[in-house]
Structures are given as structure tokens and as C-alpha cells.
Write a structure and sequence with these properties.
single chain; alpha/beta; Rossmann fold; 2 domains; seven-stranded mixed beta sheet; three-stranded parallel beta sheet; 14 helices; 12 strands; globular
Length: about 375
């Protein structure tokens, strides 16, 4: 297991209270029905340990290195102290992730936990793993190819939460029914982005006028910035009353485009986000970004570790308060899954969410640039 940084240890420790309520042990009896088996699988034991591969997709979003990886490491070490973990991050490169997966399979991993850069392209990796008798847990994104289990958030609900928050902001400002909104969706290769988009449209359609809409390759903030500049040119900056941004990174590019167009901070239209990145939280307390979606990553990583251990040992995972549900993959096959609930974060509940859960301290949020905000003045 790799050594965590002091910051990662602090972040993980901040979840201790929440983690105590989430018992993720592996039962000693029962069996798990899996799909897509091609080779006979070896059953491993927790006592002897086994080899787990963790593949994460990108570095543009801060969560993966700061939270997902250390939380998964910690959960796996608790469930299987003698297990070995191999880790790689593809930095949004499909070919690189395939190379990383191949290297892990050649190295002899016994179970893969895969957060795919491209869901469809990952089918080959999943199929190859199954052919070698290596089960696959889809993490955060549902890869194609016949994975065994899946853990994520209710991604359709994420889009609904974002859209509901934006409409609420328009109503608060008295701009509902006026002007147009711009939708800046996520990467077209990410199945989660399609779910976010569909959920948002379910709320928006018939309630707001969508003046411009984009899908954003690689979740790129730079691309989002260019798209927003195009929307401003096409619609006129004064006509834009709100912006749906699928995540915080793209929100940064969108807000930069609005500021470059001459919009003062106090006059910025409400902009949504996702992932509760530190920079996103700081923009929220500064009044630049209206909201983000907080997804409690520790339970997601814990569940993924419990699934990996269960698949490797041929047992059923005990998931505490969470239940398995059937989710249909792109081929119409059902995958045993856990879907977690997203939470909307605005300036009003920053303290009750990311601060109280130990994701960020007041000191981390309230740096010199943000010390004069109302939030920091009250918190410090």
C-alpha cells in the first residue's frame, strides 16, 4: 500500500464519524452471481491476501487523487490487510488507460476496480479481464463489456438537483421566465454526463428557455470557457440569466468567460457545478458560483473496496445501510449496483456539508482571498 500525505490522512480522518455508521465487512458465507464470466475464477482468502488493481480516469477533477484513491486505499487495508494494491490514473487518455489495465492484468491482479475514461472503449478491457477470470467493479462510471458490480451516485438525480437549484436561484432573483440559460454538459464519452444531462432536461424542459447547449470534450474547463464565449456572442451577455455547468472545473471556465465579457461579480448569473472542489466552494462563498453537488466519496470508495474483496473471495458484500439494486448496462444486462444520493451545496449549507464531514477545514476554505466573505467572517 502506498503512503498517504498528511493532508490525505487528515481528510480521511475527518470522515471517521460518518464511516462508523457505514459497516462494510465481507461475509464469510454465500456467493455472488456475476455476469460475463469466461474463465474459471480462483477464490482467494483475506488471510493470505490478493492483488487489487485500481484504475482512475483523470486529473483535471481534483477529487480522484485527493479523495477517491486514499479513501479506497484505507478501506481496502481495513478489509484485507494483506492485500496488495496497484494504482494508475489515465489522465483522460483512453489508450493510456487500456495500457495501464493490460499491465495490471499481465502483472496478475486478481480483481480490477475501473473508473473508465470512455465507457464504450473500456469494453475491451472488461472483456479481457473476464477472459482471464478477473472480476471487474465499475467505479463511478458504468463501463461496458459486462462488469460484475457497480457503485456510483444516482447520476440522473445529480442532473435534477443541479437543475432544481438553478431554477430556485432564478426564482429568488426574479429572473425566472426572463432571458435564456446556457447548458454546458460534460464529456460525450462519459455515460454519467449523459445521465446528468437527461436529469437536468427533465426539470428544465417546459420551464426555461435554453438558448445554447454544448457537450464538452474531456470535461475541459478551457473548452467550457470557449463554449461560453460563443454563447455570449450568440445570445448577448445580458440575455443569459443562468448557466447549467455539469461540474466545478467547467464552471471556472464559464465564470471566467462571463467576467471577461464585463460582468461584475454582483451581476453574475447563477452557475451550477458538481464535485464540491475546494475552488468551487470558494467561488460559492465569494458569490461567483451559485451551487455545487456534493457527493460523499468516502462511502463510494468503501463500497467499491467491499465489492472488490467480495468478488475476489467469492462471498457477498455486506453494505450496511445500503442495498444492491439492478442497473442496466448498455447491452441490457443487469449489474448489481449501489447508487448513492447527491446533495446540493450553496453558501447556506457549506458548513453543514463539506466542513462538517471533514472534506475541507475553515482554514483551507478561508484563505486570504476569501477571508472577507460573509462565510469566513462568521466562521473565523
Amino acid at each position: 500500500m502506498s503512503t498517504r500525505t498528511a493532508h490525505q490522512r487528515k481528510v480521511a480522518g475527518g470522515f471517521a464519524a460518518a464511516g462508523a455508521a457505514l459497516t462494510l465487512l465481507v461475509s464469510g458465507c454465500g456467493s455472488l452471481t456475476t455476469s460475463g464470466e469466461d474463465a474459471e475464477r480462483e477464490t482467494h482468502s483475506i488471510e493470505e491476501g490478493f492483488h487489487v488493481g485500481l484504475l482512475l480516469p483523470e486529473l483535471q477533477t481534483a477529487r480522484y487523487e485527493a479523495f477517491d484513491k486514499p479513501f479506497f486505499e484505507e478501506a481496502l487495508a481495513e478489509l484485507c490487510p494483506n492485500c496488495e494494491l496497484s494504482y494508475a490514473n489515465a489522465d483522460q487518455d483512453v489508450d493510456e488507460q487500456q495500457t495501464q489495465a493490460q499491465a495490471m492484468l499481465t502483472e496478475g491482479v486478481d480483481v480490477l476496480v475501473l473508473d473508465a475514461v470512455d465507457s464504450a472503449a473500456a469494453a475491451g478491457t472488461v472483456s479481457e479481464a473476464q477472459a482471464q477470470g478477473v472480476p471487474v467493479v465499475a467505479y463511478d462510471r458504468l463501463a461496458q463489456g459486462g462488469v460484475d458490480m457497480y457503485v456510483s451516485f444516482d447520476n440522473h438525480r445529480v442532473g435534477q438537483v443541479q437543475a432544481e437549484a438553478l431554477i430556485e436561484a432564478l426564482e429568488e432573483r426574479g429572473t425566472a421566465g426572463e432571458g435564456q440559460i446556457v447548458m454546458v454538459n460534460g464529456s460525450p464519452t462519459d455515460p454519467n454526463a449523459a445521465d446528468f444531462k437527461a436529469g437536468a432536461h427533465e426539470i428544465f424542459d417546459g420551464q426555461v428557455e435554453i438558448g445554447q447547449e454544448f457537450d464538452t470534450p474531456d470535461w475541459s474547463p478551457d473548452q467550457a470557457n470557449s463554449q461560453m464565449e460563443g454563447a455570449i456572442t450568440a445570445l448577448g451577455v445580458d440575455e443569459i440569466v443562468g448557466v447549467y455547468s455539469a461540474n466545478d472545473g467547467m464552471a471556472s471556465g464559464i465564470i471566467a468567460a462571463l467576467r471577461s465579457a464585463g460582468v461584475d461579480v454582483d451581476d453574475l448569473p447563477p452557475v451550477t457545478g458538481q464535485d464540491a472542489e475546494l475552488a468551487g466552494i470558494q467561488r460559492i462563498i465569494a458569490g461567483e458560483q451559485y451551487m455545487t453537488v456534493y457527493k460523499a466519496i468516502q462511502p463510494e470508495a468503501q463500497i467499491a473496496a467491499a465489492m472488490a474483496v467480495a468478488l475476489a473471495t467469492g462471498t457477498d458484500p455486506e453494505l450496511g445501510e445500503y442495498n444492491l439494486v439492478d442497473v442496466e448496462d448498455a447491452n441490457g444486462e443487469t449489474v448489481p449496483s449501489v447508487l448513492l444520493e447527491p446533495i446540493a451545496v450553496t453558501e447556506e449549507n457549506v458548513g453543514d456539508t463539506v466542513v462538517s464531514d471533514g472534506i475541507y477545514s475553515i482554514e483551507e476554505i478561508c484563505t486570504d482571498d476569501y477571508a472577507d466573505t460573509d462565510f469566513c467572517q462568521e466562521a473565523l
